Amino acid sequence: MIAPTIENRDDLLSYLNAAMSLEHATIPPYLTAYYSIHSSTNSDAAHIIRVTAVEEMLHLTLAANVLNAIGGEPDLTRPGFVPSYPAYLPDGEDDFTVDLRPFSPEAVETFCKIERPGKAPSADSRLVKTPDLKIRFLVSSPTAEQMRFYSIGEFYEEIVEGLEKVAANDPTLFRGDPARQVGPEYFYSGGGEVTVVSDLESAQQALRFIAGQGEGLDSGIYDAEGELAHYYRFRQLQLGRYYQVGDRPDAPTGPSLSISWDDVYKVKVSVRLADYPPGSELARVARDFNADYGAFLALLTEAFNGRPGLLQEGVCEMFRLRDGFNRLVCNPLPGSGSLHAGPTFEIPAAAGPGPQALPGAGGTTRTVTR
């Protein structure tokens, strides 16, 4: 049997930081697909992707609350927090890549793989050896070298069990400042609410909610809140029909939904800054977008470090990025064979905590300080 990989508070801090990185890592792919859709088209798909992106922010917040509860300090500006795309996620014994893609059948297939429930066949197979040292998995164990998890759900189950083990040996584990908790009054999502974490029970509740809402162990088509799990939301786009209560997993019987794969800007998959012509206006726009996204992450860092009221602004900021997206995705990328430009999410190293100039609607800026 494989030994547990969480033995103490430091191990938990490493895992919870990894959980925050994982929850954020799905947001750029979802936003890229969402903003690649032509305005006023594909309303069903756009709604599904948008709502899921907001709920990933909820998951990010829950992970931050657990980290804060044990005295950690969330930092979304640290080097490596934003992955380099394509990134790797587990699919049981195998793996798959997560790219920045326009809305397409391939993108929806990736989203289904991200959200697909996956329980390891046994406790011994929760962890899987990663022979290729060049591949960095988003659910690698931060404490066991060259090991990654069978699924996202198993990753969270390891944290849940680790919390129980460490709490039993450390009565002061939940030593974090309660003022750093983000409460439900600071974040609204139609699919669940923020849990304030103060002890083992609330910590496990928060983490199991993340897993149950579509990124972990299978609890059926609907999560504990009665909302359609993320995996099945995306399956609707593949099957062309909405689920109704009582439906079987692969046989939705609700209203049909309309998809037009052609009403999309054909963004270059996982485009990088190196793909842009040096010195071009388009390259400048791509760099500006990355700086704006870095400022968005700095705002969230402030929210998770004692200024929870900023979180509502952070959610709005995520969608104010539309202007930056549009200035990229609407334009062909020279030398790419008629493909369009897109954001690269290569966040400049200078983006970090402290005073930040944050983008606002219409290209204005405002300063947020501690």
Describe the structure.
With 370 residues, this protein is mainly alpha-helical. Helix content is 41%, strand content 6%. The protein contains ten helices and six strands, in the order H-H-H-E-E-H-E-E-H-H-H-H-H-H-E-E. It has a two-stranded antiparallel ribbon. Strand 1 and strand 2 form a beta hairpin. Helix 8 (281-303) packs antiparallel against helix 9 (310-320). The longest helix is centred in the N-terminal third of the chain and has 27 residues, at 43-69. The N and C termini lie far apart (47 Å).
Which helices and strands appear, and what pairs or packs with what?
Layout: H1 9-25, H2 27-36, H3 43-69, E1 87-91, E2 94-98, H4 105-115, E3 127-129, E4 147-149, H5 152-169, H6 200-215, H7 230-239, H8 281-303, H9 310-320, H10 322-329, E5 356-359, E6 365-368
Helix pairs in contact: 1-3, 1-5, 2-3, 3-6, 3-7, 4-7, 5-6, 8-9, 8-10
